[in-house]
Amino acid sequence: MSKHKINIAGIISVAVIGFVVIFVANASIVRAEDINQELFHAAWGGRWGEVKRFLDEGADVNAKDKYYGRTILMEASESGKLEMVKLFLDKGADVNARGRNGETSLMDASWKGALEVVQALLDNGADVNVMNNYSGTALMEASTNNRPEVAKMLLDRGADVNAKRNDGSTVLMLASENGNLEVVKVLLDKGADVNALNNYARTALIQASIGEYREVANLLKAHGAKAIGKKPRL
Known about the structure:
Layout: H1 2-44, H2 48-56, H3 72-79, H4 82-90, H5 105-112, H6 115-123, H7 138-144, H8 148-156, H9 171-177, H10 181-189, H11 204-210, H12 214-222
Helix pairs in contact: 1-2, 3-4, 3-5, 4-6, 5-6, 5-7, 7-8, 7-9, 8-10, 9-10, 9-11, 10-12, 11-12
């Protein structure tokens, strides 16, 4: 009988220990998820001091938020926070992590025009020609949002000056249709195809003309742009 009691007691002890281990493990998982979400909220709010604290407490520098699939490196890059970008990279942040829309930290920084952040990301292996889910590149982001210095840096680091979106639009077309004269100059100096056609048979010259950007149109003509393609009915 005593042996039977001892065995029962042993079984109970093992069960209790197993329960405690599972409880602690689950609690740790929940805590990890909580601290990562706190990390994102701090990053979204620009509370970088709190971000540092959460990382010191064990938050995952490569965790992604549950809404947009973004990392804190993306948030810091989009905000142009060079100090934070360097900190996250030093802590092992994935420089080529992608958000739900395929965006990268380099794309975010390029759109922002954060030149020093762009350089830091490139120095740490950022892919200069990767495309997002809408077939856009970092150079397209810089060119669309009129960031000539960033565009030049990206081109110097290997960006494809003639990259195309799914609709055939080139970087030069995007800069031209937005009237971004200085970016157009940079792209032409780097050999952009001035007479390329998109899927709608439009050229950069047509796009500039639609927007009535005469300086851009004249510059394109000076670089050999021809009156080809189809101008849409307005």
